[in-house]
Amino acid sequence: MKNTAPDQPITSTISDVERDTGVAKETLRVWERRYDFPRPERDTYGERLYSEEQVQKLRLVKRLIDLGFRPGRVIQLSAPELQALAEKAGSGKHPTSLPHPDLKMYLDLCKSHEMEVLRRRLSQALLVMGLKSFVTDLVAPLTNLVGEAWAYGQLAVFEEHLYTESVNMVMRSAIFSVPQANNGMGAPRIMLTTLPQERHGLGLLMTEAMCVVEGAHCISLGVQTPLQEIVDAARAQRVDIVALSFSAASNPRQAIDALAELNARLPEHCELWAGGASISLKRRSPKFMRVYELAEIGAAIAEWRGRHAHRRTG
User: Fold this and answer.
1) Peptide bond preceding 226 in cis form (omega within 30 of 0)
2) Rounded distance, CA 146 to CA 70, Å?
3) Range 69-93 average pLDDT
4) pLDDT at 204 over 70
5) What is the average per-residue pLDDT within 185-190?
6) Pairing between strand 11-13 and 48-51?
7) Which of 115, 149, 245, 235 is nearest to 193 (CA)?
């Protein structure tokens, strides 16, 4: 628990830091030994306590790692240097001509906690843009902007959670309004979930939205499904594709090991797809799976249909 006594500085336990930054406890301990950062104090029981300044710096370090930097390259930089580097590295990442470009307005609604207004504005944008463009041109870049604001300390953890829940509500309603595909018409049966270590579900929901728009029959298990449960569900539901989402906070080595085990257990005909914000996973994509961006899902499903055009008879 965080110490919030008025006469003492705010400190965080290692569990607090793991939750608030997305950096695993084991990684924090390795960095402490290898790079001499972070440098926590100890309480009377010998437990680590991290200052607010260290937590903020860890957020920036995590953001840069998500952008492809190695820890040893950035961890010794000061917080201002990290922020400047993150801003430079992240520049030019967003599309320059969005159909609905006023992302700052949505971010300001998060900061002012006007969540009902936020949901109403998102719903209005959905009606104007359609579900596919809403996901690729608004929700995806806005989520990235919210992540940057959190990394720079401009958005609290609870505010990011409020944003996520608001988007979830709007998108889930939109997905339910799309008629489920008829499997006899060549629609792939796609089961969507995340591995047990992955608790972030917004990317999974965006993927589901893109799949249903393309006429796929989607079965969502939600997040953090044990490997054997994924295998059992894939068999019971006779799925063609297991699609997994990975956030930037995922551990790529751990993810690839789990994916290899999952691939070995799945039925031979069942394909393994992955996507999300994990840059490392994209760079080290195993041969036994396919890694797609959101904008590539439509072409991927069309390609699947082409490969299986004669397999289904109704």
Assistant:
1) no
2) 23
3) 79
4) yes
5) 84
6) antiparallel
7) 245
Q: What is the distance between the alpha carbons of residues 151 and 131, in angstroms, rounded to a whole number?
A: 28
Q: Are 241 and 208 in contact (CB under 8 A)?
A: no
Residue 49 has φ and ψ, to the nearest 5°, of -130, 125
Q: Which fold has domain 11-90?
A: Multidrug-efflux Transporter Regulator; Chain: A; Domain 2 (1.10.1660)
Question: Where do the CATH 3.40.50.280 domains begin and end in the chain?
Answer: 183-307
| 199 vs 305, residue with greater confidence | 305
CATH 3.40.430.10 at 183-307, yes or no = no
Mean pLDDT is lowest, of 53-62, 162-171, 270-279, for 270-279
Tell whether the model's pLDDT for residue 311 goes beyond 80. Answer: no
| Residues present in the chain in total | 314
The fold of 103-177 is 1.10.1240
**Do 285 and 254 touch, CB atoms closer than 8 A?**
no
Q: Is residue 118 helix, strand or coil?
A: helix
Q: What is the mean pLDDT of the chain?
A: 85
Once rounded to an integer, what is the mean pLDDT over residues 168-183?
Answer: 85
List phi, psi (to 5°) of 272: -115, 115
Cα–Cα distance for residue pair 208/168, rounded to 1 Å: 12
The boundaries of every CATH 1.10.1240.10 domain in the chain are 103-177
268 Cα distance to chain centroid: 28
